[in-house]
Amino acid sequence: MPGWRVPGAYLRIVGIMALPSAHPSPPPGAAPPLDQPQAGPAPAAALPLAPPHAGAGLAPARARPGPVSGQVFPSEPRGLGGRRRTYALVATDLDGTLLRAGDQVSARTRAALELARGAGARHIVVTGRPVPGVRGLLARLGYDGIAVCGQGAQVYDAAGGRMLSALTLDRETAATALGKIEAETGALFAAVDQDGTDGHTLIEPGYRMAHPTLPARPVPHRDSLWERPIAKVLIRHPELTDDELAAAARSVVDGLATVTMAGPGTVELQPLGVTKATGLARAAAQLGLGPADTLAFGDMPNDVPMLRWAAHGVAMANSHAELLAVADEITVSNEEDGVARVLERLYG
């Protein structure tokens, strides 16, 4: 369908609908769903069509105290009069943050999310995984809220199984960006996440998936990657580290795409200006909320914009140094229920 365009990206609004503010309680004895929104501000009629260039709809980045690397400490957010502050929105990354090994959410973390919801907070999952690679996981976890997927390019209604909005990376722009990076670094291995709820992850010969459990479809050559619209490109280098590859890519694709390092073996090219922060801003606006209402958790460089956007940003102890440097607070690792410990302190 026709859409608003920025260089190298297309915004597609799909099946906009007002989301319910409450859901039935689970049957007796059942584990509580990962997300069960409480009654709150009336949802907007549609997601705002803010231009997705860098900084669109975002609060200015705030100066951070710069915690000492490796230090684990609580930071007690305070409101007016020095009272302990809580937040109306809890935004959590998945891998390395909310999830333990094996894509599991612990009983303690589920209970802590229930505690926050009981205090009136909403929960939004914000993940780098595309919708097709995460919707099954969300269903298994009982999550039925809004999910920001694909590094902020996709806003997805988990309850209805519907894409609310999606940004795509222009395929000609993507191919040009790949060529520029290879001119700088030598040959790369590439993959793409296709657009849509039914899209595939296509991998060219030599590309190895960082998450081998995620579905992927091999293709015979690179030209096959561009057979339909794409959400993002994934790249790997046979010799460079992830940080080295991300730095090299940024140096040559400025103005074409956003480069993100999302985890081990996961360097990605997204539509220009798209980040987890821009996606979260669109999703939060659907709930009538903004950065001042938001508590955010993450562990990797792709979470930096989100933590800077939120009123209070929490990094896991297992986080990349780049995220630790901008966090307001460092909690314990995902395997030690770091998200739960912060929620228990703030909402208990």
TrEMBL record:
One of its GO terms (molecular function) is magnesium ion binding. Residues 36-67 have a biased composition (Low complexity). Residues 24-35 have a biased composition (Pro residues). One of its GO terms (cellular component) is cytosol. It comes from the Bacteria. Residues 24-79 are annotated as: Disordered. Keywords: Hydrolase. NCBIfam families: Cof-subfamily, HAD-SF-IIB. This is Hydrolase.
